[in-house]
Amino acid sequence: MKQAEEESGPPAGNATAAGWRCCVCGFVFHGDKPPKGCPVCHSPSHEFIRDGPRVPLVYYGEPFDVLLINGSTHRAGNTGYMAGLAEEVLREQGIPYRRFNLSEHHIDYCWCCYSVRAESCTFPCRNTKDDMPAFHRMLAASKAVIIVSPINWNSMSARLKVFLDRTTCLNNLYHLQKPGHTMGKVAGILVCGHEDGAIKTAMDIWLNFQQMGYILAPFGIGFRTHGSEFNSSSDRAFFQNDEFIVRQARGVASNVITLMQEGLEERLKDRLVPVTE
Hints:
By secondary structure, the chain is an alpha/beta fold. The chain has helices spanning about 80-90, 130-140, 160-165, 170-175, 200-210, 235-240, 245-260, 265, and strands spanning about 20, 30, 50, 65-70, 95-100, 145-150, 185-195, 215-225.
């Protein structure tokens, strides 16, 4: 995804100029180019996208193999860089894929219909007013998913947690003894962050996909951290000059592709017994 240039535009008061919205905090800047940084949350210019009326995400059923999700609040930060490394492998191997940065999309919190009664948690989801129904359909249509997450308080980001909460309707199909849409698909997980919590974050994410019938690719979890002894402002330079993060991200992506191409989803159809919470 093309990143905005780090140049400032006219003052924010120039309402006739183009609008740029910070994907992190929602601040809108008016100018020909995004500002050098967000004055509200201090995110760099790469976090700005063109502002305009929200257009719901729609999936029309075009076939593709891998759904690549950047779960960070910062679409162009260190997690985005790790997602880009995985994306390179998908492109190099000619794998049809779709990449999404969750910070660019509108996903409501889960209504927890299941807690009222199991039958109320349905697929398609009752909440049809945000972007999640399109993601539901893409999860069902794709053969594999690669989730890339930052470490926030020893776990995933709030954006990614909401995304995963909203997959409950897919998991609940098995409880309602209905045909599932995700059994036998392949998953890979990538995590990066400033300090500790990478394994816990990966396992928190994996538990969700395991409950939907996904199969973790061999060597399907990769992570890289910098260290609490360093200032977080130095993380970006560290990651972008680190060979280990490249091996981790590219290796997991390659392993997901290899297992996906074994066709386990089709071979295991009607042979697995759903055992979920």
